[in-house]
Design a protein that fits this description.
about 220 residues; alpha+beta; three-stranded antiparallel beta sheet; 5 helices; 9 strands; about 15% helix; globular; disordered N terminus; binds iron/sulfur cluster
Length: about 220
């Protein structure tokens, strides 16, 4: 992303209002106070009325913006619970509904499970059970478990840790990072209470000049 002065509409927006950018040919909403390479952008098609959260004090009001952008990561032990909820064996659940994503922690590649993203045509962006690649991470997609008409999660009682802890009105730094979830996988640590147990943050490497962009959607590295 270039400098602010290079962006369309710069200087014409009223202070404090979100504005639209174009990233990878998609319209993106940029909120005041975010970095220009936003960690948590929203695609305009997901938020057509271009509105702020109408009642932040009410928390989740099921707009579905997070579930339609980038599914949350499971923590260790959670795929088993979600599979049991659907009456499946864990391996069948992963081969049908999940992707294997990964993150490097202190030089070690850590792999995790996440629900698949679907494209706008409703088809998986990669074959179920495969490994995510850079392109998959860049593009947004609706979670395979999101029930659009009901605006609900089909595995809500066994939803991933990242989904449990995510609050869309938080600053990105206040939400659980994917590095923290990867840290649980590296330790093989299963949380006794996924709604409450503390999850230690993992050290962040210095960003490389011209390095990889953060993933699309809700999450932060
Ligand atoms: S698992 Fe459920 S809560 Fe998480 S992104 Fe998918 S639909 Fe949303």
């Amino acid at each position: 992303m270039g400098t602010d002065a290079m962006l369309p509409g710069h200087g014409s927006q009223a202070a404090g209002r979100p504005r639209r950018l174009r990233v990878l040919q998609e319209h993106t909403v940029h909120r005041p106070g975010q970095a220009l390479a936003p960690e948590n952008p929203y695609w305009a098609w997901e938020e057509p009325e271009f509105s702020e959260h109408p009642a932040p004090e009410r928390g989740c009001i099921r707009r579905g913006l997070c579930c339609r952008s980038n599914p949350g990561w499971f923590a260790p032990g959670e795929v088993e619970k979600a599979a049991a909820l659907l009456g499946l064996e864990p391996d069948a659940f992963v081969r049908r509904f999940c992707i294997i994503d990964a993150l490097e922690l202190e030089g070690e590649r850590v792999e995790v499970f996440a629900p698949l993203k679907l494209g706008r045509d409703g088809a998986p962006l990669l074959p179920p059970g495969s490994r995510a690649d850079a392109l998959y991470r860049m593009f947004r997609g609706t979670c395979i478990f999101y029930d659009e008409p009901a605006r609900a999660c089909r595995i809500y009682p066994a939803r991933p840790l990242e989904c449990r802890r995510y609050i869309c009105t938080n600053r990105p730094s206040e939400n659980l990072s994917r590095r923290a979830i990867a840290g649980l996988w590296r330790q093989g640590r299963v949380l006794a209470d996924p709604d409450a147990d503390p999850v230690p943050e993992q050290p962040r490497p210095e960003p490389e000049a011209g390095g990889a962009a953060p993933p699309a959607g809700r999450s932060r590295w």
